[in-house]
Write a structure and sequence with these properties.
It comes from Streptomyces zhihengii. By secondary structure, the protein is mainly α. Helix content is 76%, strand content 0%. The chain is built from ten helices and no strands.
């Protein structure tokens, strides 16, 4: 039987949250322990003791960012009333496009890119894991009959490609109006394709 990792101490949790806020403001690519420790009221020695290594701290920060992103995406897409993939994607995009979420999304984009070009070390698997996370969130908005079908998997894969592509464009250009129009256009096509498929299936 595998042993569970020990629960983090209160001090470790406190410093992780402070380091996460620092990472949202400054990014992770050039993260240096000394200025980080000074900014959050700690020391490099304490951070290395609590997180075992700089890579260990980076992994903890990436896990923290991933959990934050996943929880927010899931909450953003869930209304009080009935839902479906199209309306949920529209709500998720509204959340993604909000300017106050740019720090988290820039951090996500940075980690996603580093995971592709540096597949070893603390970044390992981050990009693949976030793809699976997003697909899982989108699947949760589909009715079971659609979610469990090949066509349903294709629709949420297309929705993810649209959201991710529009998000990267938004982070590069800040052209929210153009991209919101493009997302709305693609959602209309997605809806039309789904309606045609439903008629073809006798739904």
């Amino acid at each position: 039987m595998s042993q569970q990792a020990p629960a983090p101490s209160a001090r470790q949790t406190e410093l992780l949250e402070a380091a996460y806020r620092y990472a949202l403001a400054h990014g992770l690519t050039d993260l240096s322990l000394r200025p980080l420790a000074e900014a959050i009221g700690s020391s490099p020695r304490v951070l290395l003791f609590l997180f075992e290594s700089k890579d260990g701290l980076l992994r903890a920060l990436l896990a923290r960012a991933r959990a934050d992103e996943l929880a927010l995406l899931d909450r953003a897409g869930r209304p009080e009333g009935p839902t479906g993939l199209g309306p949920a994607v529209e709500r998720v995009w509204t959340w993604l496009a909000a300017e106050e979420h740019r720090p988290l999304l820039r951090l996500w984009a940075e980690a996603y890119t580093r995971s592709l070009v540096q597949p070893e070390g603390p970044w390992a698997g981050f990009a693949r894991a976030t793809v699976e996370d997003w697909l899982g969130v989108l699947a949760g908005f589909q009715p079971p009959s659609e979610r469990d079908s090949a066509a349903g998997a294709t629709r949420r894969t297309l929705a993810l490609a649209v959201l991710r592509g529009a998000l990267l464009d938004l982070l590069a250009t800040d052209d929210e109006r153009r991209l919101t129009g493009a997302v709305a256009h693609q959602l209309a096509l997605l809806h039309d394709d789904h309606a045609a498929g439903g008629r073809g299936d006798g739904e």
